[in-house]
Please model this.
Amino acid sequence: MIGRLRGIILEKQAPDLVVDVQGVGYEVAAPMSTFCHLPAIDEEVSLYTHLVVREDAQLLYGFATVRERLLFRSLLKVNGVGAKLALTILSGSDVDDFSRSVQEGDAASLTRLPGVGKKTAERLIIEMRDRLKEVSGAMGLKPVVSEAAKLAGAKDEAVEALVVLGYKPAEADKMVKVVDGENLNTEELIRQALQSK
Model:
């Protein structure tokens, strides 16, 4: 696996560049977030890389930071997201903004990214939320949780608890929705949902 390249930029035309490393020219695709910070042609560059091996090609992707590469690798694990879309996502959003959108469940801001439709945005939120928690330390991110997300989390936990108590999922969901759950934690939601029954 090629994890890092340091060499001289021979060519660059977004999103592709050629880096000469001791006489070998590596073709590298980079997101715009990296491309905008590249030095001029004939100057030295250092990139973190990810190699994708397919039946018909070996593709090398380059990133200015470890955080970008880590997010790229996490995006590749999402069902329906390939290297091209992952690169497009990184080109249209920086790591912090993307992470914030996922953590807050903001599908609207994700659909503004090129190539990301409503279904893909929802899939990204669902599948990336846990992955971002796993890699947040390495990415230097602090979890961002809005008040709406906290309330939604408390309601989801209350529904799950009621299901464990023997209620059907639809019935548990209905019981929690009946409760005026503004500013209530999970325990208070459960208590009031049971009292309203």
